[in-house]
Design a protein that fits this description.
Layout lengths: L1 E7 L4 E5 L4 E6 L1 H4 L14 E6 L6 E7 L5 E5 L7 E6 L3 E6 L8 H13 L4 E5 L7 H17 L2 E4 L5 H10 L4 E5 L6 H8 L24 E7 L2 E5 L13 H4 L4 H7 L16 H7 L5 H15 L2
Parallel strand pairs: 3-5, 8-9, 8-11, 9-10, 11-13
Antiparallel strand pairs: 1-2, 1-4, 1-12, 2-3, 4-5, 6-7, 12-13
Amino acid sequence: MKGRVIKSTGSWYTVKSDDNCEYNCRIKGKLRLNDSKLTNPIAVGDIVTFEKENSNEKTGIIKNVEPRVNYLIRRSNKLSSKYHIIASNIDCILLIVTIAKPRTTTVFIDRILLCAEAYRIPAIIVINKKDIYNIEQLNKLDELKHIYNNIGYKVLVISALNDNDIEELKKELSKKISLITGHSGVGKSTIINKLNPQLSLKTSSLSKYHQRGMHSTTFAQMHEITPNSHIIDTPGIKDFGIIDFENENISLYFKDISKYAALCKFNNCTHVFEPHCKVIEALKKNKIPVSRYESYINIVNSIKAE
């Protein structure tokens, strides 16, 4: 039998078969050990073949994972050499960010966009909670929107409590399997509940002391928004550790930097100190946003430190 993994709790996987039946499945030992650096051999979104354990039960054993069209991957934690597949076979990454309560940094945004570019997954930036910001924060919102619009990313500014905003977002997700990601507390579960009120996902408030979100989602799961639209909800991410990138390739996945990097005098230019570096020249002429260049340097330095 064949189906798609729609939920993962670590040891059990819910697989929705081609005939729309759901099975709770486990994996074989051999499949589990195929890649020792991978913390999860099966990810939500995977297409798998499985066998029912017996004819009367809705349980099964996953035998094989079909080749993935794409996936989003991150380092398990800062000190780990292991990596974790967040989701696979996705049409769009929905990156939820907030200007405050909690604040999403541009470094966090750019790390996820880097991986989206590397694995050829279109990304939409959704700035949530527009209804709570003061004048200074709204100015910051406009600046952020301007930066990423100019690079070529679609940026939506919404309030999860505004029905018109939710309808606009629903149109963007039509006929797609989308992954929703971002820090805890940015409103991911609230947005999903608004997209499909029948889901009633658990939501959580911010920590009053740290002004950071607390996890309301503890495992990855795919939800139906409409019969032809699905969204994968994942636990909130504090830090997004990238993996399997070489320093010389990082600039390729910054769309606004790569076009200048291609013009540099030296093929191995790091865009940090070299003479005649077209990236540095563009930065000085304000053709590259300072925040984007700082994200580039942050990522390069983090790879050097590994």
